[in-house]
Hints:
The structure holds two protein chains of two kinds. Chain A has helices at residues 3-14, 32-66, 71-146, 150-428, 438-441, 454-470, 476-479, 489-502, 509-515, 520-535, 540-557, 566-588, 594-608, 616-620, 625-646, 658-668, 673-722, 725-728, 733-741. Mean pLDDT of chain A is 76; it is low at 1-25, 61-66, 469-484, 559-620 and 643-652. The longest helix of chain A is centred in the middle third of the chain and has 279 residues, at 150-428. Chain A is 84% helix and 0% strand. Chain B has 22 helices and nine strands. In chain B, strand 7 (394-396), helix 18 and strand 8 (422-424) form a beta-alpha-beta unit. Chain B starts with a helix and ends with a helix. The A-B interface holds A 2, 4-5, 8, 12, 15, 18, 33, 37, 40, 44, 84, 91-92, 96, 99-100, 102-103, 105-106, 109, 182, 189-190, 193 and B 211, 253-254, 256, 287-288, 315-316, 342-343, 370-371, 373, 398-399, 401, 426-427, 452, 454-455, 460, 464, 474, 500-501.
Amino acid sequence: MNPPGALGVLEEKEEEHLSTPILGPSIHSDNPQERIQARRLRIAARLEARRREALGEYLDGKKESEEDQSKSYKQKEESRLKLAKLLLCGTELVTNIQVATDIREIHRRVEEQEIKRQRLEKLENEVKTSQDKFDEITAKWEECKQKRIPQDLWDMLNTQQMHCAGLIEDKNKLISELQQELKIKDDQYVKDLKKQSDDICLLLERMEEQVKHVMKTFRQELNYIEKAFEVERWELLTSNKKKWEQALQAHNAKELEYLMNRIKKVEDYEKQLNRQRIWDWEEYNMIKIKLEQDVQVLEQQLQQMKATYQLNQEKLEYNFQVLKKRDEESTVIKSQQKRKINRLHDTLNNLRSKYAKQIKQFQEENQSLTSDYKRLVTQFKELQKSMRHFALIDDKQFREIWLMNEEEAKDLISRAFDVDRIIHTHHLGLPWTAPDFWFLRNVGPISQQPQKSATQILEEVLMQAEEEETEEAASEAESYLDLPKQISPKTTRKILMLLCDESGFLIENKLLSLLLPLEKNECYLLRLDAIFSALGIESEDDLYKLVNFFLKYRVYHSPSSQVIHPYAFLQLNPWHLSPPQEQTSLLSALEPGKQPDLEGQKEESLVEGEPEEKEAPPSSRLIHPNDVLKILEAFVMGLKKPRDSWAPVKLKYVRDNSKDSEYWEALTTVIPDTTQNLWDALYTALEKYHLILTQRAKLLIENNSLEQQNTELQMLLQKYLDSKINSELQVPPIRVFRAPTK
Amino acid sequence: MQETLATSTLSAPRRSSISTQEMFSTADQTSSTGPQPSRPSNIPPPGKSKGWNSGTKVRRMRRIIAEDPEWSLATVPLLTELCIQHIIKNFQNNPILKQLRPEHQQKVLSHLSPELPLAVTANLIDDENYWRRCCMHRWPVCHVARHGGSWKRLFFERHLENLIKHFIPSTTDPTVLLDLLPLCRSYVRRLRVDQLLPPVQLPGPPRSGELSDSGSDGETEEPATDHYQLRDLVAGLSHLEELDLVYGVKDCGMNFEGNLFLFTYRDCHSLAATIKACHTLKIFRLTRSKVDDDKARILIRSLLNHPALEELDLSHNLIGDRGARAAAKLLSHSHLRVLNLANNQVRAPGAQSLAHALAHNTNLISLNLRLNCIEDEGGQALAHALQTNKCLTTLHLGGNELSEPTATLLSQVLSVNTTLTSINLSCNHIGLDGGKQLLEGISDNKTLLELDLRLSDVAQESEYLIGQVLCANREAARQRTLNPGHLMSPVIAKGPEKPAR
C-alpha cells in the first residue's frame, strides 16, 4: 500500500533519463488537477518557446551586428540554454507524476481520515446504542427472575430473545457493513495497484518519449551548432578569400608600380651611361695622344739605348774572349789541382786507416794493460790483505814468541835471582836486595804508546784548563801532553772554545737540548765531540793540525799582521800540498807510518825555530769569529784528501824494534859482572869444599863398613862360643878367646 | 574443446600432428575425446585383412601427404597453448594463475568459464574482464558505475544481495551466506536489499479475512515472523559503507498479506545492534518497513555518535513526532549530512523539534520531509531555523499542508540565506499571496537554483517570474563554476545534482 514509495523508486530511475515529451499524456490523466497542471505547463512551455525564439532572433541580430566571430559561440550558448530548459521542463514533467501522486495521496489521506473518523464515530454510536440495549436486556433479566408465571416468563424470554437477536443482528449488520467496506477497500487496493502500474507505464512512456525527444533535440541542436560552425567557417573562408584577393590586387598594383619605376630608372641609367661613354671617349683620345707623344720620346731614347747597347756588346765580347782564355787556363789548373787533391786524399785515407789501425792497436793495448792493471790491483789488494793478515799473524806470533822468550828469560832471571839470593843469604851471609830494572816489569813486546783520540785530548785540555784556572801555578810543560809543544794549552782551549761557539750548526738539535742541563765543561766537551765527529777529526794529530791551522791561517790572512812571514807559507803549504806528496811517498815508502812522524818532526823543527810561537796565543784572540767558518772550510777541504788516500795504509802498524835488542841485552845483563865474579870465586871455593866433604864422606863410609865388619865378626865369635860344640870340646874355643882377652 | 576438435579434424591425414595429438590426449585425459575420432582413419581396426589394408593405408597416406597443400606447421598448437587449455579446463580443481606469465594469465582469464565456483575465483582473480563476463552472464543489466566502477564489486554485491533477498529464515541454511562471507568481505561496500522474506508459515494462513486479529496477535506471532538476522553478515563485511534495507516482500501483488510486512521488535533490536557495530557504515536506509516511533527510536538511539554515518533514510515508514524528535537528537549527535523522513507521519511538534536541532546544526545538507503533515506550525519553525542555519542546501517540504504564513517566513529567509539551493514546496496550499511573497523573497536571492511550487495554488504569473529568477541564478551559478577560483564553486557544482534527488 505504498504508491508514493513505488514512485519514489521510479523517480530515482528516471534521474538518468531526464526526458519529457512536451505534450505529455498527463492531459488524459484521471486527476483534474494534474490535467490542469499539464495544460498550464504546456502553455508555459509554448510561451517560453516563443519567447525564446524571439529572444534568440533578437539576440542573433544583435550579436551579429555586435560581433561576427562568435556566431558558433552564440549558437552553442543558445543551444545550451534551450537544452537546459528542455531538460528542466522534462524533469518537471516527469516529476509531475510524482507530485500528482503526492497530492492524490494527500487527498486520500484527508479523505481516509474523514472516513476513519466517521467510522469511529459510527462505531462509537453503535457501541453506545448496543450497550444501551444490552443494559436493557440485562435489566430485563432481573425482571425475568421475578416473574413467577411461566406464561409471562415465556413471553418475557421471547421478547428477550428477540431483543438479543436484534442486538446480534445489529452487530452483524455492522460487521457486514465493515466487511463491505473492506471489500471496497480491497477493490480500491486493486484499483490502486492498477493505477500505479498505469502510472509507472505512463512514467516509462514519458521517460522514453523524453529520451527520444531529448535525443532528437540534442541531435538537432548539434546539427544547428555544426551548421553554425560551418556557416562561420564558410564566412571565414569567404572573408579570408576576399582579403586574400584584395591583398593580391594590392600586391599586383604595387608590382606594376615597381615595374614602371624600374623602367624609368633603366632609361635614366642608359642616358647616364651614354653621357659617361662620350665623356670617357674624349678622355681616352686625349690620353691616347699624350701617350703617343710619350711613345715617340721613348722610341728616341730606345734608339740611343740601342747604340750604347751595341757599343757595350762589343766591349763585352772582347771581355768574353779574354775571359774564355782565362777560363781555359783555369780549367787546366783546376784539373791539376784536382789530381793533386785526389792524391792527397789517397794519402789522407791511408793515413786515416793507419791511424785507425793504430787506435785499435792502442786500444787493445790499453785494454790489455787496463786488465793487467786491474789484475794487478786485485793482486795488490789481495797481497795487501794477505799482508795485513800476515802482519796480524806475525804480530801475534811475534808477541807470543816474545812472551814465551820473555817468560823463559824471566824464569831464568828469577832463578838467577833466587840463586843469587841464596848465595847471598846462605852462603855469604849478606843481605840481598832484589835488583829493580825497568825491563823486568815489562810484559809483551815493547811498542810506542797508542795515539790518543781527539776527545781524550780535548778532555785533557779542558781539564787542564780548569786546573789552570784553579791553580795558576801549574807548570805548562809538565802537565801538558807530549806532542803540542809549540802551542800552549790556553791557546788551544781558546781556539776550541771559539770553534765550539761558532760551529754550533754542526751539532744536532737533539744533542743541544740534551746538553742544556749539563755543566759548562762537559757541555763544551760534548759539543766539541759532536763537531769533531762532523768534521772528521779523530786523532790527536788531527786536532793539533786543526789548532795549528787556525793559528797559521790567522797569521797568513790576518790583515792586522802586515808582515807575511815566509814561514807561514812554508807552514801552510805542507798542509795543502803534503797530502799528495804523502800519498806518493807513503805508497812508495815501505814505512808509511813513519811519515807523519817525520812530518811532525819537521813541523816541530820548523815551529820550534819560530819566535812567533810566543805571540800566537795573544794573536789567537784576534781571530774574528766570522773567519772561523772560512778557516773550518779550508781545513776540511785540506783534510779530506789525505783522509781518503790514507785509508788503505792506515791499518798498517809497524812496530819499532830498535829497543828490542837493548831490552834483550838488558835482560842478559841482569846479573852484573861483579856478582858473576863473586859467583865464580864462590864456585871454586865451594868446589874445594865439596871435595873435602866428599873425602870425608868416603872416610865416614869406610869407617862405617869397618864397624860393621867388626860387629859381624863379634857376632860370629859369639855364636861360636855359644855353640854346643864348645861344651863338647875339651877346649872350648871360647876360653881360648877369653883367655887371650883376659 | 573447440580448438581440440579443430586440430583433430585437420590432423586426420597427417602423421606428424597425430603424434602430438596423441601426446596431447595422453597428457590430457579430459580432452581425450577430441583426438579419438581421428584415430580410426589412421589405425584401422585389426579385425580386417591386414595385407590389403596396410598396403592401401601406406598408399593412401602417401598420396594424401603428397597432395595435402594446406599442411603447415602453423596449425599445430603450441605447447603453451595446450597447457593453457588444460589449465582452463582444470581450473576448478587446480587453479594455476599467479604462477603464469602476464600474457598467459590474460589468455587463461579470457577463457575461464563464468560459472566457476566462487570459492576458487573470489580471492584469486582480480581481472575486471573476467568479472565483467560473470556479471553479464548472470544479469542482463548491470550498472557498474553504481558499484564504484568495479565489476568484481558489482558481482559480489549483487550476488550477496540476491542471496539475502531470497533467504527464507528457518528454511534456508544460514551457512550459505556465512560461507560466502570470507570470499566477498573485502569487495562488498554496499548492500541494497529491497526485500527480506519472512519465514514460511506451515499452516495455511487462517487470518486472511481478519486483519484486526492479525494486528492484535502481532506481538504473540512476532518470533515466528522474524527476518534474517544481518548481524553476523554485516559484522563480517569489513568495508561495508552503505546498507539499504526493506523489511517487506516485493511484487506481492494480489497475494498481499499484512504479515508479509512485519518489522518485529526483535528484528529492530538486532538491526540496531548490527548498525551500531558497523563502524564503516556511511549510508543507512530503511524504507517501506513499517518503522514506527518506538522502532525508530531504538534504531536512532543505536546510531547516536556513530563515527561514520552521513546519510539516514527512513522514508515511507510510520514515524511520528517522537521518532522525529529522536532524529532531531541524532542531528546534534552525529555528522549526518542527509536526512530523509519522507512519507512519514511527522506532525508539527516533530517538525518543531527538527527545526530546533537544525537551527544550530553545521553538518546537515539535505532534509526531506515530503508527504508529512507538519503544517504551518512546523513550517514556520523550520523557516525560523533556516534563518540561523548556514549549511542546509536542500529542503523538501512537499505535501505538508503548508500555507501562506510559512511562505511569508520562507520569503524572509530566502532574502537572507545564501546556502539554500533547492526548496520544494509542491502540493501545499501556499496560495496566491504566498506566491507573491515568495517572489519578493526570491528576487533578492542569488543562490537558489530550484524552487518547486507545483500544485500549490500559486498564481501562474508569479510562478513564471520565480522561474525567471531561478534561471538567472542557474546561469550565474554556471558562470561561477566555469570561472574557477570562486569560493562558492564546489557548493554550486553540487547544487544541480542534489535537487534532482
